[in-house]
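Figure 3 (text version): structure tokens given as input.
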């Protein structure tokens, strides 16, 4: 342990601790901008590029960046001297001098960390005027908009993309005034190996990275009298939406969310959880079929479009492993434009399906040409949790005072198994609840598979079914997925089933969720909210959902049968590896 003096306060810290970390232990606040420490997902951005956190160290002539300077025995640090405060203020003023002044209409207005820091420092005029660096906006993808004119070179996105997700799309380019974070050969994002997971924009402190705004498309559809507009909401949305209205993270706002969507003007409000139960019927059937008939194992869950695209680029030699099931919201779109449309007497081409998702990759997924039926797309428009909150505010709805309402049927009934899709480990746990009973023909009394829960990078468990040990793996974050898949490719690991989610924590940490600004306790609270909703459900196994039974009896026939394959399954394509 090392003794350090910070503003007259003594603290003992382990060797290797930075000044910033030590200061937090004695409640000394040092402002930061480029720094981001997400220990739980093993991401620490120590680029020290912004110099906002500079402090004075006794015996050192120059100011030291607190985020990247390790302490030493007897170090004396002063964070609030005139020299350090003036330097920090000058740094922020220089950042503002090369930043657009469109805060009122900016995607990150009131969420921008640069804006918040300027307000905290009391900056009310531009001290430095001059040329602004300008870069072309990249809106080539369906998911992410890159506006590098707003980039402050914090390198957070680069760290997330390269070290955590291991996608390696973003890197620093150029020199001097023209330096920017960009793609190889300045390619548009859509032409790179980007998975559109959105984790880069989740950590971006400004609006250099933002989701494609689909809100105007939704309003246009709602106001089109020729369109019958239905909406579905993913499980992770209901435990995060409340944050946008001042509620505690993890607060379950399902009833208020349904009421808000009805007030906005949707013709029907449905639950993606219904389709998650449908997914389990198909995915569990596929798993049991592979297990009984010597099929290809391990089976990999296919609910996450970010990880699916990652797999197509990076592991195209293993495309026979993932489940062929569509993701839940795509399954919903498919049955909505067939089964539901028939019941309602609505032509599929006149029905617009809107998905509210925690994920920006779902925007890209909805545009995949193979995800449609009869010449129409399964899902027409995808908006994120943040976009839904904006629509609620735009409509003047007092969200916190809404009375709870129920989803519409027949596609609104769901079980606890479907709710847990929103948390890492939830999909495979839900599948096991059903597969276990189908394989053993016995009732599963304890439906909670604790070993598959938590936010550790990779979790493993062995479940005994009919005397056979079934090896399960769960991983989240694409870097963890890469390590696991490479072990399988080399023959170093054998599993029967694997769940992979692109985002830390699973869908609750999706790129379209309310910004957590590095506070990973928020993710844990969202996960707790997911499991509390599961426990509150009367039915907790997908195959016991009466509405699921009904749709198979009336329309789909047997799970994993011909009709189900036509509507609920898909295929994957090998993509270029750069």
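Below: residues designed for each position.
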């Amino acid at each position: 342990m090392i003794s350090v003096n910070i503003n007259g306060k003594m603290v003992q810290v382990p060797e290797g601790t930075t000044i910033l970390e030590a200061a937090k232990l004695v409640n000394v606040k040092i402002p930061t901008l480029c720094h981001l420490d997400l220990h739980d997902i093993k991401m620490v951005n120590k680029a020290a590029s912004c110099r906002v956190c500079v402090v004075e160290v006794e015996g050192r002539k120059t100011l030291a960046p607190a985020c990247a300077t390790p302490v030493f025995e007897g170090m004396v640090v002063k964070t609030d001297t005139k020299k350090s405060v003036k330097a920090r203020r000058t740094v922020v003023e220089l950042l503002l001098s090369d930043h657009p002044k469109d805060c009122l209409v900016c995607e990150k207005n009131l969420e921008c960390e640069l804006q918040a820091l300027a307000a905290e420092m009391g900056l009310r005029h531009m001290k430095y005027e001059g040329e602004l660096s300008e870069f072309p906006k990249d809106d080539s993808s369906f998911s992410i908009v890159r506006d590098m004119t707003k980039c402050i070179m914090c390198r957070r996105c680069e760290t997330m993309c390269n070290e955590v997700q291991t996608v390696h799309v973003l890197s620093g380019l150029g020199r001097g005034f023209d330096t920017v974070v960009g793609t190889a050969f300045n390619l548009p994002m859509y032409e790179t190996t980007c998975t559109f997971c959105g984790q880069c924009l989740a950590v971006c402190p400004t609006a250099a990275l933002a989701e494609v705004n689909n809100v105007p498309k939704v309003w246009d559809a709602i106001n089109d009298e020729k369109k019958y507009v239905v909406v579905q909401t993913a499980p992770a949305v209901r435990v995060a939406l409340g944050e946008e209205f001042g509620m505690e993270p993890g607060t379950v706002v399902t009833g208020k969310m349904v009421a808000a969507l009805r007030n906005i003007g949707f013709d029907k409000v449905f639950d993606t959880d219904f389709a998650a139960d449908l997914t389990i019927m198909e995915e569990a059937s596929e798993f049991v079929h592979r297990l009984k008939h010597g099929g290809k194992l391990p089976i990999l869950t296919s609910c996450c479009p970010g990880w699916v695209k990652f797999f197509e680029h990076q592991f195209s030699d293993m495309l026979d492993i993932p489940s062929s099931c569509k993701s839940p919201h795509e399954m919903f779109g498919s049955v909505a434009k067939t089964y539901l449309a028939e019941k309602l007497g609505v032509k599929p081409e006149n029905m617009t399906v809107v998905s509210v998702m925690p994920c920006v990759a779902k925007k890209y997924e909805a545009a995949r040409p193979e995800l449609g039926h009869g010449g129409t797309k399964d899902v027409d428009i995808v908006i994120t949790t943040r976009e839904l909150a904006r629509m609620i505010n735009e409509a003047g709805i007092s969200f916190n005072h809404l009375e709870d309402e129920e989803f519409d049927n027949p596609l609104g009934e769901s079980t606890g198994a479907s709710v847990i899709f929103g948390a890492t480990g939830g999909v495979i746990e839900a599948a096991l609840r059903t597969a276990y009973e189908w394989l053993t023909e016995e009732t599963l009394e304890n439906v909670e598979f604790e070993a598959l829960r938590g936010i550790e990078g990779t979790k493993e468990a062995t479940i005994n079914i009919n005397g056979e040990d079934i090896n399960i793996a769960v991983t989240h974050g694409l870097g963890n997925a890469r390590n696991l898949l490479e072990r399988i490719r080399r023959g170093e690991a054998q599993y029967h089933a694997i769940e992979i989610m692109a985002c830390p924590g699973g869908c609750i940490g999706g790129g379209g969720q309310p910004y957590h600004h590095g506070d990973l306790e928020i993710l844990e609270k969202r996960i707790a909210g997911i499991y509390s909703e599961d426990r509150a459900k009367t039915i907790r196994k997908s195959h016991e959902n009466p509405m699921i039974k009904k749709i198979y009896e009336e329309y789909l026939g047997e799970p994993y049968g011909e009709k189900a394959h036509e509507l609920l399954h898909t295929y994957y394509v090998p993509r270029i590896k750069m």
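The chain has a mean pLDDT of 95.
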